[in-house]
Design brief:
By secondary structure, this protein is of the alpha+beta class. The protein has 2 helices and 5 strands, in the order H-E-E-E-E-E-H. The model has no long low-confidence stretch (mean pLDDT 88).
Length: 110
């Protein structure tokens, strides 16, 4: 999903639903990138949308030794100008008291 489509979706949610909360935060280590979260109450119940923006990995280097017990370290090289964007949808489940991810492929298959 492009940034323009995401902004249109957020605007549509704001005009359609009453209580909308929007949060921005950085992803925790070891991940790199940003996450924008939209919480709202829809016809299916409490819903959460996450829009993840991450830089594209252009190289992966492994550093380590052949000694017993040594742990190899992985170094990722990220692109400064290319990003991957992902949209995830979650529904609140009262029985599990947690967010359950909505599988878009199964939900909207014809």
């Amino acid at each position: 999903m492009t940034q323009e489509k995401w902004n249109e979706l957020k605007a549509k949610i704001r005009t359609t639903f009453k209580e909308v909360q929007i949060f921005n935060d950085k992803l925790e280590e070891p991940e790199v990138g940003e996450r924008e979260t939209v919480l709202f109450a829809g016809p299916l119940g409490e819903l959460k949308l996450e829009y993840l923006t991450r830089p594209v990995v252009i190289d992966k280097r492994t550093h380590g030794s052949r000694r017993i017990g040594s742990v190899p370290e992985v170094e990722y090289i990220y692109s400064p100008d290319e990003f991957s964007r992902t949209l995830k949808a979650y529904k609140w489940d009262d029985s599990q008291d947690d967010w359950l991810e909505i599988n878009m492929k199964e939900s909207f298959s014809l």
